[in-house]
Write a structure and sequence with these properties.
Layout (H helix, E strand, L loop, with lengths): L5 E5 L11 H9 L4 E8 L5 E3 L4 E2 L3 E2 L5 H7 L6 H7 L4 E6 L13 H12 L5 E6 L2 H10 L5 E5 L4 H11 L3 E4 L8 H11 L3 E5 L4 H10 L3 E4 L2 H7 L4
Parallel strand pairs: 1-2, 1-11, 2-6, 6-7, 7-8, 8-9, 9-10, 10-11
Antiparallel strand pairs: 2-3, 4-5
Length: about 240
């Protein structure tokens, strides 16, 4: 796990193009990103669309709408399938949004089933990591297909506790918010993670000095809004 960290574009190159769009992902890859991070929601007819919030401006809650209507009114909202095609060969971090309180919260975790179904239809050709703040969601995905790598997103959880959860439940990555791994915390977390064979991908890292600090500590991935700047800070261009 040592070496230069992966640079993953947070919702694509969102400082240059509208986030979570095919354009944003294409620009990120053109800038040299190793992959992208995106958010998925289900539609009323079980399509997976890429959008940050459950509620899309001008449309409403995506889970209550058929995909055809979404495509007609908001052609900029891509399907997961379309984004995977766009990002062929690159790593795609698929975040499943599904927390209690979300407008489309689903205690049955159907989006996990749909992600597995989408990947299966593509015959395993994609490089993916599926993450969520909802531990039950990624547990559900592993129960369906434990060959799909999963990551636990944390913001209000001690990252050391998050690592124990990953190791116990078989999740291959921990995604801590950058504010959780300040100071000497990062070194301890990364060292322990690698002892457990768990990758650490920190979000959202936009500061050049922080990019270099995490790289020096051996972090596995940096999720950033500015993939071009991150690459420059790492001396990759």
């Amino acid at each position: 796990m040592d070496g230069v960290p992966l640079v993953l574009a947070h919702r694509g190159a969102r400082k240059v193009a509208p986030e979570n769009t095919v354009e944003a992902f294409r620009v990120a890859l053109d800038q040299g990103a190793d992959g992208v991070e995106l958010d998925v929601h289900r539609t009323a007819d079980d399509e997976l669309v890429v959008h940050h919030d459950a509620d899309a401006p001008g449309l409403g809650v995506l889970a209550t709408l058929p995909f055809a209507g979404i495509r007609t009114q908001r052609p900029d909202i891509p399907t997961l399938y379309e984004v995977l095609d766009t990002c062929a060969g690159a790593l795609v971090n698929i975040e499943i949004k599904n927390l209690p309180g979300d407008a489309d919260f689903d205690p049955e975790h159907r989006a996990a089933d749909l992600v597995v179904r989408c990947l299966a239809r593509r015959d395993g050709q994609d490089r993916v990591l599926v993450s969520s703040f909802n531990l039950d969601t990624i547990d559900r995905l592993r129960a369906i297909d434990d060959a799909v790598p999963t990551g636990f997103l944390v913001i209000g959880v001690d990252p050391m506790d998050g690592l124990d959860v990953c190791a116990t439940r078989g999740h291959r990555a921990l995604h801590p918010f950058v504010g959780l791994v300040g100071g000497d915390v990062a070194a301890r977390v990364i060292q322990r993670a690698h002892e457990l064979a768990v990758a650490v991908n920190v979000w959202t890292v936009n500061d050049d000095a922080e990019v270099r600090r995490f790289a020096a500590l051996g972090v596995d991935g940096l999720i950033t809004d500015v993939p071009d700047r991150a690459r420059h800070a790492l001396g990759l261009d």
